[in-house]
Design brief:
alpha/beta; seven-stranded mixed β-sheet; four-stranded antiparallel β-sheet; globular; binds ribulose-5-phosphate
Amino acid sequence: MLLKVNHVVVLQLKRYLHKMSLEEAKRIAAYKAVDEFVRNDQIVGIGSGSTVVYAVDRLKEKVNKEKINVVCIPTSFQARQLIIKHGLTLSELELHPEIDVVIDGADECDEKMTLIKGGGGCLLQEKIVASCSKKMIVVADYTKDSKRLGEQYKKGIPIEVVPMAYLPIKRKIEMLFGGTLNLRMAVAKAGPCITDNGNFILDWHFPTGDYDWQKINQEICVIPGVVETGLFVNMAQKAYFGQADGTVKEKNS
Ligand SMILES: O=C(CO)[C@H](O)[C@H](O)COP(=O)(O)O
């Protein structure tokens, strides 16, 4: 009995330490990106997800300490709330259509710097903001750094779709490229997950293989009803991955 209790405690401790090490990895990556890329008088895109929270903390510290002016463009409702909560200057693409740098997380980043994004469901606005930005900098922990997409991230490639078209899109992609697409379901609501833009998300579990992601992305995007994919090809210039040993690995395009 005592042995069993000890085993459970050790397991819980291990899980806790793993979580802590991941959080620390996210923090150091995000801090480094802000330190190295944000400068006075810049328009900065604010990504979405848990790692970006650390980037916004650091940005706030930097703005206070160095008395710099930074205008922030959010990529989601979450990012907008973060900007407001930190008392940073909030703007939008209509006022600032040209962004200097966007700092964003990723679900996975392969050796060519192709990203899977949208695990948090914010892919559309994230891609729009990244497309308006001179530089896209990725911040992530070590579990996101892969040679090939799908190596570590097992939840599939998110595809944002117009609700009425989700089933035909699912069938077309399964027929064209194989694999399966699952309609993402909400966690604290009955039914599907609804994006910030009122759409659904299909998560594509693609068959293992070598892909021309640029081509696949283009082919998926022309299917009527597809709004955007979470494939970010040739968009990110640099990625920072916080490591378990406290160092930060850098990857460049
Ligand atoms: O694409 C995203 C949200 O749509 C996030 O950037 C991605 O899911 C990574 O999130 P986290 O920093 O929590 O690991």
